[in-house]
DNA sequence: AAATAAATGTGATATAGGTCACATGCACAA
DNA sequence: TTGTGCATGTGACCTATATCACATTTATTT
């Protein structure tokens, strides 16, 4: 592979990770991938550091390479409600703010030390406009994301706290390695005390 | 406008409605629109008729021209949980099933007499592959849909039954003209009795 | 290694909202 | 127009989950 854009010489493993991610849905030539790569910037965040805070302008979307991020809102009583976790291979941002170009209403914070690849809204749009393939990629990604949220809504509508917990455990076992239980509670919409009781009684 | 594809001579108003819908995000020539149109089929459904039932194969996506549809699941106690309503200008299907090409786990039912335009999965994919514009259109549509679901999740996480009800009332006042209250309850994740009490006490 | 802070567990109590039962109103079918 | 069946309202009671308070365990920092 020829490194045309040297200023973007990420670690080889990181690049390959991104490329593999794209190539799950589309095929890319080396040249195409190199072209795409120039729009991404690598960034590391320490545990509990923010990529976004409430009120910040949102200009980028983040692809997680390593670690884990969470996006959440704080309500009027300062309780956190988690919108999304992002493990490696996931995209995350405050999409509402990104699309409507309004200030963030969320916090985007590293749960553990994390590495992301960032792309700005404009660069992503440009990439989609220039390369039909990429527009396709992101349309399909979006469709999966949509379905995921539908599933979450359904589990909130139909399941008890316990059922939702067990579904999550089954669907994303990796999360439980990384994320404190109070965060899982804030994701499930249950108090941390209730969550704690759910699995202590379970065994 | 030249009617190249006569077998698709929908009522002029219907065609224009679809065209306006696309042209909110992209621009189309008459010829392009005529080409697109050939992939759509018009269909009318009576109140309480099904477009999909649990177990059906899901081959199509539906664009509502007139009326109102709801998609919902039935749980083990035969309680219905509503995933989505679709008023005119909205798309609806069992997306999970459509994308994964598995049998429907939902019912798709007309709340009132309804007219839709149907497109098959294959035709939509073909349209997206052939016309970059259309791929763009659906990517952006998807992105808005995603944001909408995020908002719904947030309101389920942060709000009381009453707050959720009021948010819905404010965001989609049209729904309340058309949809029985028990369906609104099934959408909000509240019992119909509780919902009834919410607004009787309100006044 | 000690000190401090964060996360978790657990009991006692409170409450939003669910469930059940039945009454009333309203729509459409015969 | 009358009847049959949905949709809605309302009371009485019940239950899952929240809240508060504090103890315990586990990470972080110095």
Number of strands of chain A: 6
- For this structure, the quaternary state is homodimer
Helix content of chain A: 40-55%
* Structure classification of chain A: alpha+beta
Domain Cyclic nucleotide-binding (chains A, B): 24-127
GO molecular function, one term (chains A, B): DNA binding
Keywords (chains A, B): DNA-binding, Transcription, Transcription regulation
Protein name (chains A, B): CRP-like cAMP-binding protein
Care to describe what's here?
Chains A, B: InterPro entries: cNMP-bd_dom, cNMP-bd_dom_sf, HTH_CRP, RmlC-like_jellyroll. Chains A, B: Pfam families: cNMP_binding, Crp. Chains A, B: Keywords: DNA-binding, Transcription, Transcription regulation. Chains A, B: One of its GO terms (molecular function) is DNA binding. Chains A, B: This is CRP-like cAMP-binding protein. Two copies of one chain form a homodimer. Chain A is α+β, with helices and mostly antiparallel strands and 203 residues long. Chain A has one domain (2-158): Jelly Rolls, CATH 2.60.120. The first copy, chain A, has nine helices and six strands. In chain A, strands 1, 2, 3, 4, 5 and 6 form a six-stranded antiparallel beta sheet that branches. In chain A, a hairpin with a 5-residue loop joins β3 and β4. In chain A, α8 packs across α9 (192-202). The longest helix of chain A has 27 residues, at 132-158. The first copy, chain A, is globular, with a radius of gyration of 18 Å. The termini of chain A are far apart. Chain A binds chain B through residues 73, 75, 81-83, 95-96, 99, 128-129, 132, 135-136, 138-139, 142-147, 149-154, 156-158, 189, and chain B through 73, 75, 81-83, 95-96, 99, 128-129, 132, 135-136, 138-139, 142-147, 149-154, 156-158, 189.
